[in-house]
Amino acid sequence: MVTIGELASYAGVTVRAVRHYHAKGLLPEPERDHSGYRRYDAAAVVELVKIRALAEAGVPLARVRELIRAGEEEFAAAVADIDRRLRAEIRQRQRHRERIARLASGDSLALSPEVAGLLDRLRALGVDERLVGLERDGWILLAAHAPGRAAEWAARKHKQLADPELIGFYRALGRALDRSGDDPELVELADRLAVHLTRMTGGPGEDDAGVEPPLARLLDALASGTAPPARRLIELLRARGWTTWAKVERGGPAPDGQR
């Protein structure tokens, strides 16, 4: 007969683990002897070794008792079931690791790899980091609104970035972020963007990628709040007949002489 400390030592576990298995009902707890100590026999050592082996193999404690008492076929079936569950858990954890790795870049928070790649491309093209941040937040809104279309919109934007005119506009807008709302350069930017929008949509009356008006207004509000010159730029675009710069849609003929 051995004490709880000796039992734990023989089985290669801690005394705390033995007590935990007692509490879970996996290992019978013997009566105390006349000295007040619990004494364990050889069968308890064997039982504890089996419990430890199953637990270390990843078997949930809730199923350990079942497996210890199972017949050969039942044991094999139970182990196969546990193995399937473990493999599914491993796959899920691997997906979590992949998402954590993407999140480490910052841009991948709530964004797909396609959109994160788009932001990296803007940086590589020399676009001001403040504009990249504005793009990122806008894409978060777009992806939350229509997650099934984010990849489509990102592919369209990748194609648009092949246009040197658009890249030039981005760079000029980045320089204008530190200017006041009445700076003449914003008027030039509005003219350039209006021309680009006309080319991009194929002409007045053509709808854009399907951004609904409430979302377009939200995107414009985001731009206005983040980059003050954008508010003036939106006003200038409306004066040229464009309802917004987030939803590429012609609002009607531009008022004469309005700039």
Structure description:
The chain has 259 residues and is mainly alpha-helical. The protein has 2 domains: 4-102, Multidrug-efflux Transporter Regulator, Chain: A, Domain 2 (Orthogonal Bundle), CATH 1.10.1660.10; 106-239, no CATH class. Helix content is 65%, strand content 0%. The protein is built from 12 helices and no strands. Helix 6 runs antiparallel to helix 7. The protein is rod-shaped, with a radius of gyration of 33 Å. It starts with a helix and ends in a 20-residue tail after the last helix. 20% of the residues are buried. Residues 202-208 and 247-259 have low confidence and may be disordered.
List the SSEs and their pairings.
Elements: H1 4-11, H2 15-23, H3 42-56, H4 61-68, H5 72-103, H6 113-124, H7 129-145, H8 150-160, H9 164-176, H10 184-201, H11 213-226, H12 228-239
What's the count of strands? 0
Indicate how many domains the architecture comprises. Answer: 2
Strand content: under 5%
> What string, H for helix and E for strand, traces the elements in order?
HHHHHHHHHHHH
Q: How far is the N terminus from the C terminus?
A: 98 Å
Low-confidence stretches: 202-208, 247-259
| Shape estimate | rod-shaped
**Nearest-angstrom radius of gyration?**
33 Å
List its traits.
single chain, 259 residues, mainly alpha, Multidrug-efflux Transporter Regulator, Chain: A, Domain 2, 2 domains, rod-shaped
Brief synopsis:
This protein has 259 residues and is mostly helical. The chain contains 12 helices and no strands. It has 2 domains: 4-102, Multidrug-efflux Transporter Regulator, Chain: A, Domain 2, CATH 1.10.1660.10; 106-239, no CATH class.
